Give the backbone structure.
Amino acid sequence: MTVGFVGAGNMARAMSLGWGDPILCTDAGSGRAAALAAEVGGSAVATNAELAAGSDLIVLAHKPALLGRVADEVTAGLTSRTSRTRAIVSVLAGATLADLQSAYPHVPVLRIEPNTLVQLRRGVLLMATPRPETDRALVAEIVELFERLGTVVTVREEQFSAASSVSGVGPAYWALLVEAQMDAAVRHGLTPEVAGRLITATMAGTAELLRQDDFDTLAARRAVTSPGGVTARGLAALERAGIRSAFNDAMDATVDD
Ligand SMILES: NC(=O)c1ccc[n+]([C@@H]2O[C@H](COP(=O)([O-])OP(=O)(O)OC[C@H]3O[C@@H](n4cnc5c(N)ncnc54)[C@H](OP(=O)(O)O)[C@@H]3O)[C@@H](O)[C@H]2O)c1
C-alpha cells in the first residue's frame, strides 16, 4: 500500500519512520514534506489532490482545525479517474468518525490515535470501532499495517477520550515518574545513568509480567512485598503521598466527557 500523508509534521514523521517504507507527503509550504521524503524515502508532492491521486491509503496528519479545507483539496484528487485511494485514516485529535465521514462522504474512513512511540514500533494506537458499513477485509488490512507500529486497541468512540487519557499522555507520565525516581536515587548516591538503567529495565520487565498475568497488579506487588519489609514501607510512603489521587486528578483533568 502506498501511504500518502497530508502533513509532514511530528506525527507523520514518527509514523513513517516506524513503517520505514517510501511515502508520499505534503505540507503547507514549510519544506518539511521534502525533508521527510528525503529522510524516509518516497516523495513530497505539490498538492493534496496529487497526493490523493497517487496514494492507496491517505493518512490525515494535519491540524484538526483544517479538516474541511484539506478535505476540499484531497477530494479533487479522489475524484480523478486515476485515483486509487481505498481509505482515509485520520489521526486528528478530536475529529469524530461522523466529522470525518461528513468531510469525506465517498471513501471509507477510520479514526486512529497513535502515540509518539510508533516511531520505535512500540506505539499504542487507539482505533475507534469502525462504522458497521466499513468493509471488514479492508479494516483488517489497515489494522495489519498499523500493527507494524505497535499495539492497536479498538475502543468504542465514546471511550476514546478516556483511552487517550491513558495512552496518548502515557509517554509523558512515565517520563515524569522515571524522572522523579531518578532524582530520588541520585539524592541517595546513584548516578543518573545507573538509576535510569535500573528504572527502565524494571519498568519493561514489570510491564511484561503484568501482560502475562492478565494485569494482576496485586499479585505483582505481593510477590515482592514481605510483611513489614522494605517494599511495604516504600509502597506505604507512595500511598501517603497520594499517588492514586494524583492519577485520578490527572484523568479528571484530561478526560473530555
Ligand atoms: N504529536 C502528537 O503526539 C500527536 C498524537 C496523536 C495525534 N496527533 C494529531 O496529529 C496531527 C498532526 O500533529 P503534529 O504534532 O504532527 O502537527 P505538526 O507537527 O504541526 O504538523 C502538521 C503538518 O500539517 C501540515 N499542513 C498544514 N496544512 C496543510 C495542508 N493544507 N496540506 C498539507 N499539509 C498541511 C503542516 O505543514 P507545514 O510543515 O508547512 O506547517 C505540518 O507539516 C494533529 O491533528 C494531532 O491532533 C498528534
The mean pLDDT is 96.
